[in-house]
Amino acid sequence: NAGVMQNPRHLVRRRGQEARLRCSPMKGHSHVYWYRQLPEEGLKFMVYLQKENIIDESGMPKERFSAEFPKEGPSILRIQQVVRGDSAAYFCASSPRTTFSLQETQYFGPGTRLLVL
Amino acid sequence: SQELEQSPQSLIVQEGKNLTINCTSSKTLYGLYWYKQKYGEGLIFLMMLQKGGEEKSHEKITAKLDEKKQQSSLHITASQPSHAGIYLCGAVRYQGGSEKLVFGKGMKLTVNP
Fold first, then answer.
1. Which of A36, A38, A94, B92 is the most exposed place for a label (fewest CB within 10 A)?
2. How far is B28 from chain A (nearest CA, A)?
3. Tens digit of each residue's pLDDT (9 = 90 or more) over B41-78
4. At B4, phi and psi to the nearest 5?
5. Given CA atoms B31, A97, A52, A4 in this order, what sign does their dihedral have?
């Protein structure tokens, strides 16, 4: 059973370009979370999605950032018109259900390291 | 201010030594996760604690959630170079109508052979 997969692992963009980060959850997992890890900071929640639905995007910047999790295919985190401050590691996690009281664990992918020149 | 404070921020130990990492929350913990991260890689799930006083062990790593449920400790016995990495604690938070994890900044562990 493959784990959470993310691609690309490394992405270099120039200011103003678009970055598209992909996340394939573990088999059987329908809940996807995106986190961002800035240098010298901890992981920060960005968005939580289920298939075809955004459940909570309270951690997403209001502009330039969007996320989707279509019925078929991976979840996509899209950053338009990237700026240097977007340089970070972006992690995706998946779980089969959302209810932590059932001790469902979030399993993380290897991350995509975005560098904006 | 940080919701989860981890201490120490970094630690260098000699192989074979025991060590303890702490994670202190400003709010009651309803679920506390410990992950390990190696540079350039993702987070590896170690353990999850829910109940006050709960203690779990995996190989040489033991984690405990205190009775008042606002602090957790991770103890490594007879550390090895393979234990090196960044240890992150994550707490379950109910915000914005959903559950999510908030993390501490991590504790960087170096184990010298």
1. A38
2. 15
3. 888 989 988 888 889 998 899 999 987 879 999 999 99
4. -115, 120
5. positive
Those residues whose C-beta lies under 8 Å from the C-beta of residue B79, and which sit 6 or more positions away, are B13, B15, B16, B17, B18, B19, B60, B109, B111
Chain A: residue whose CA lies nearest to B91: A100
Integer CA distances (angstroms), B90 to A8, A13, A48, A69, B101, in order: 25, 30, 16, 24, 6
Question: Which residue in the set A40, A42, A56 is minimally distant from B103, CB to CB?
Answer: A42
Angle, vertex CA A88, rays to CA A91 and CA A73, nearest 5: 35
Q: What are the tokens at A35?
A: 């986190």
- A-chain CB neighbours of B85 within 8 Å are none
Q: Measure the CA–CA gap between A35 and B90, rounded to whole angstroms.
A: 12
More confident residue, A101 or A8: A8
Give me chain A's average pLDDT, please.
Answer: 90
CA of B50 vs chain A CAs: smallest distance (Å): 8
Q: What average pLDDT does this structure show over B25-50?
A: 87
Mutate to test the interface with A, among B9, B43, B45 (most CBs of A within 10 A): B43
The shortest C-alpha distance from A103 to chain B (Å) reads: 8
- pLDDT band of A99, cuts 50, 70, 90: low
